């Protein structure tokens, strides 16, 4: 049976905070003992805050391109400039929508640059520079503090081109293989599966989102009871190679 525990005892995170320590302490206060094979899903926002990935908009001078996009989108030109700096290439731009490829290789809105749940009204957060590395460091810390062999996922909310609504996806992982390749196995009737690859890390991130409420201060969830493939995979394994992308 799969269980999901939301951790609501995480304090407001500031630069330099020990995220792993906060998670272990919050779990203890809520009576949740972290166990072997738990998956700890962590909202990107608190990781970015702890790592100091924030930008003060007062320090930003918009470029001519940012000014032009701002006039069309209605967004603060300084915010647009930060998005452009985090962007490898613009994929789509229409009115208020700016879909880009980040330097990590993620295709998402506004390069993951976000203002929600940031205390200073002039500050915005960026995605972690290396989310997989962040996941590795947090996992190592949790394992040292608890002795439990866990998986860690850093998640963020992405939109979907063909469906309404957003879902959480994995942008950083450690301790699990993010994709389960079922190609070559057989279904119930003996037919060989030729294309099935399960995005395990994304599915776990989305499941955890059900209890990770942004407005209620629940930035971490523990998923228990799922037999995930162990290993040292990377969230980059979930990115479709450009040559296989039919829509760019």
List the helices and strands and how they pair.
Layout: E1 3-7, H1 19-29, E2 39-43, H2 44-50, E3 54-56, H3 64-73, H4 77-85, E4 87-94, E5 97-102, E6 107-109, E7 123-125, H5 131-146, E8 151-160, E9 163-174, E10 180-181, E11 197-198, H6 200-209, E12 220-224
Parallel strand pairs: 2-8
Antiparallel strand pairs: 1-12, 2-12, 3-7, 4-5, 5-6, 8-9, 10-11
Helix pairs in contact: 1-5, 3-4
What does this structure look like?
- The protein has 248 residues and is α+β, with helices and mostly antiparallel strands.
- It has 2 domains: 3-51 and 128-239, 60s Ribosomal Protein L30, Chain: A; 54-125, CofE-like domain (CofE-like fold).
- 25% of the residues lie in helices and 26% in strands.
- It is built from 6 helices and 12 strands.
- The chain has helices at 19-29, 44-50, 64-73, 77-85, 131-146, 200-209, and strands at 3-7, 39-43, 54-56, 87-94, 97-102, 107-109, 123-125, 151-160, 163-174, 180-181, 197-198, 220-224.
- The protein has a 5-stranded mixed sheet. A 3-stranded antiparallel sheet has the order 4-5-6.
- A hairpin with a 2-residue loop joins strand 4 and strand 5.
- Helix 1 crosses helix 5 (131-146) and helix 3 crosses helix 4 (77-85).
- The protein is globular, with a radius of gyration of 19 Å.
- The termini are far apart.
- The model has no long low-confidence stretch (mean pLDDT 92).
């Amino acid at each position: 049976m799969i269980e999901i525990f939301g951790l609501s005892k995480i304090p407001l995170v500031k630069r330099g905070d020990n995220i792993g320590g906060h998670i272990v302490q919050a779990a203890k206060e809520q009576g949740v003992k972290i166990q072997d094979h738990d998956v700890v899903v962590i909202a990107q926002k608190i990781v970015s805050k702890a790592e100091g990935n924030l930008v003060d908009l007062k320090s930003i001078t918009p470029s001519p391109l940012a000014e032009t996009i701002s006039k069309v989108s209605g967004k603060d030109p300084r915010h647009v400039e930060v998005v452009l700096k985090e962007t490898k290439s613009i994929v789509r731009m229409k009115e208020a929508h700016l879909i880009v490829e980040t330097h990590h290789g993620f295709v998402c809105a506004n390069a993951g640059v976000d203002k929600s749940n940031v205390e200073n009204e002039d500050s915005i957060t960026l995605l972690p520079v290396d989310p997989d590395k962040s996941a590795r460091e947090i996992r190592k810390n949790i394992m040292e503090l608890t002795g439990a062999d866990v998986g860690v996922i850093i998640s963020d909310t992405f939109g979907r081109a063909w469906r309404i609504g957003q879902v959480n996806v994995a942008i950083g992982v450690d301790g699990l293989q993010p994709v389960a390749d079922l190609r070559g196995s057989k279904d119930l009737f003996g037919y060989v599966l030729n294309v099935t690859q399960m995005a395990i890390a994304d599915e776990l991130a989305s499941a955890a989102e059900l209890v990770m409420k942004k407005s209620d201060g629940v930035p971490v969830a523990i998923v228990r009871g799922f037999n995930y493939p162990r290993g040292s995979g990377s969230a980059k394994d979930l990115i479709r190679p450009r040559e296989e992308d039919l829509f760019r």
